[in-house]
Amino acid sequence: MATKHEQILQHIISLGVGNKISVRQIAKALNVSEGTAYRAIKEAENQGLVSTMERVGTIRIERKKKENFERLTFAEVINIVDGQVLGGREGLHKTLNKFVIGAMQLDDMMRYTEADSLLIVGNRVKAHELALNEGAAVLITGGFDTDDHIKRLADEKQLPIMSTSYDTFTVAAMINRAIYDQLIKKEIVFVGDIYTPYDQSFYLYNKDTLKRWYELNEQSKHTRYPIVDDKKRVSGMLTSKDVIGKDPNLLIEKVMTKNPLVVQFKTSLAYVAHMMVWEGIEVVPVVDQSYILQGVVSRQDVLKALQQIQRQPQIGETIEDIVSSNLETVEDEQTVFRAKVTPQMTNQLGTLSNGVFTALITEASSRLLLYVKKGDLVVENLTVYFIKPVQIDSNLIVKPKLLEAGRIYAKIDVEVFSNQKLVGKGLLMAQLIDR
């Protein structure tokens, strides 16, 4: 039987997109406490089922697919530009495909304005009307209002018409920046993107006997299973080490490892990879906020995701992406790299920033290990020496050297040169993830 938490989530999923949701309403409809309703609504927000906005409330939204993550809803636009809704509140959950700046004649403006777009325009009432009739939302800049009949039209079309005190150029820059940030976030992989759901994975109950472990092992060939209580809350892990040599009639709760490490949907791939390497574990249970089992994530899932990320083109560039794209292998030397200091890599003084220098050392070390050991690294410790400042447009030579390497451990010394002079050094210690 589904828990109250699961029943609330199912109820939220059954609501139509655009429906308003409140803690009191959910508590009354499903006869649960307001605390239970609040926690379930927060979980629904984490899963992308609802969105909570200032001055708007919590509404049911269409769950975004990862590949469309760079698109914004009109409700998100309101938050970005610190605006207010004048009409068409029912359409705030909709997604904009593009935005158009209305700094042209009406006919030219309408040529570019289409359904699901956002027209950014000043105090031009006729443009507001034409855009709504074309199926586009409207954002009025400069803090202006609009006519009442335009607000009624927005309500009728269920298309938001909004107002902000910022000017048109600033608004366009803010929305563009938000989309760019979303593109960077799109590349971040979370446990929720790679885990195996509990209905497709194997688990045991704490009141089962060890005999059940052998049955499941025969069926699945796995050796590690999450242990749950009668409410599906994770209470332990059971591995072959716990079972071997024990009486098959013993209860699992007597021999399982209690209080296991767990992750949630929003745990990043980098974090779970580090956890698995550091703790030496192969499988981690995925839970919700109430510790109810949602599935598992395995080392194979993590490695597969890491390999896919390396094959993806990066759309929104982070500092690490800029460093990675600038770092090239020197001809005939697979373990020596060169890079040019671009404006994005410098600080306010026009010299190579400390953060970028550290990223250069880490990236060069990672490539060296890929070449020598065919594995990825998780940095455990990094000591950096900044010897001389490096000017913009300088050409760098980065020479990582493997000092020591074991099965799960490596120590690397890195020297960085500019004009054949040593400008910095780094000593990196890392744990290895074999491919």
From TrEMBL:
InterPro entries reported for this sequence: CBS_dom, CBS_dom_sf, Diverse_CBS-Domain, DRTGG, HotDog_dom_sf, Ser_kin/Pase_Hpr-like_N_sf, Thioestr_dom, WH-like_DNA-bd_sf
Alphabetical list of Pfam families matching this protein: 4HBT, CBS, DRTGG, HTH_24
Keywords associated with the record: CBS domain
Residue span, CBS domain: 256-314
Source superkingdom: Bacteria
Family matches, as PROSITE patterns: CBS
Record-given protein name: DRTGG domain-containing protein
Species of the source: Virgibacillus byunsanensis
